[in-house]
Amino acid sequence: MIAALLILIAYLLGSLSGSLLLGRLRGVDIRTQGSGNAGGTNALRTQGWRFALGTVLVDVGKGVLATWLALRFGGGEAWLPWAAGVAAVLGHVWPVFHGFRGGKGAGTLVGVLLVLWPLGLAVMIGSWLLVLGIGGYVGLATILAAASLVPLALLTGADAWRLGFAGLLALFILFTHRSNVARLRAGTEPRFERARVLVPRRRAHD
């Protein structure tokens, strides 16, 4: 009963979308703007960095809180914090409070990893920065960053719960970014050129 309650709480916390809550204060719904997604990237593109920062803090924070509650009150069940983390990410993507239309889950995943797997978070952020710095595609960087958790789990001899979490979330992040994959294949995915700091700049010809 306690485990089910903690998982439900994690899902409800995940359903508190940072961009949509802050958007209500501003009188905007970013799902009607830009890419139509309720995540941090679309918040940055449509509302500016301050709004995006607030969005990220809320989305990361709810992942932290949901996972911490499972650790604190879960009676030492090894699987429960990982299940709560998954529930929080699912709530972010399909929020019950916002018509089941949320973000893509990466921000909340960061919060979960911050509590349960700091090394995984470090590798994920490093991978994200590397891919973004080379290609400039945020969606692709996020997909590959999440995927990096799987080889890390295998290389470090992770237990079944950690490995299962890594594989499940890697596939889920790929699923939530399927529109980015489609745009990449079509050559229409927007690119942050200023983020491509690892690519030599072309010199203009006279």
Description:
The protein is mainly α. Helix content is 68%, strand content 0%. The chain contains eleven helices and no strands. Helix 5 runs antiparallel to helix 6 (106-116), helix 6 runs antiparallel to helix 7 (118-135) and helix 7 (118-135) packs antiparallel against helix 8. The protein starts with a helix and ends in a 20-residue tail after the last helix. The mean pLDDT is 92.
| Unreliable spans | none
**What order do the helices and strands follow?**
HHHHHHHHHHH
Question: Approximately how much helix is present in the residues?
Answer: 55-70%
- Mean pLDDT, to the nearest integer, reads 92
> Distance N terminus to C terminus?
72 Å
Approximately how much beta-strand content do the residues carry? under 5%
Q: How many helix segments?
A: 11
Radius of gyration: 17 Å
Throw out a few tags for this protein.
206 residues, globular, mainly alpha, 0% strand
Topology:
Layout: H1 2-14, H2 18-26, H3 40-47, H4 49-73, H5 80-93, H6 106-116, H7 118-135, H8 138-147, H9 149-155, H10 160-176, H11 178-186
Helix pairs in contact: 1-4, 1-5, 2-4, 3-4, 4-5, 4-6, 5-6, 5-10, 6-7, 7-8, 8-10, 9-10
Task: Give a concise summary.
It contains 11 helices and no strands. The chain is an all-alpha fold and 206 residues long.
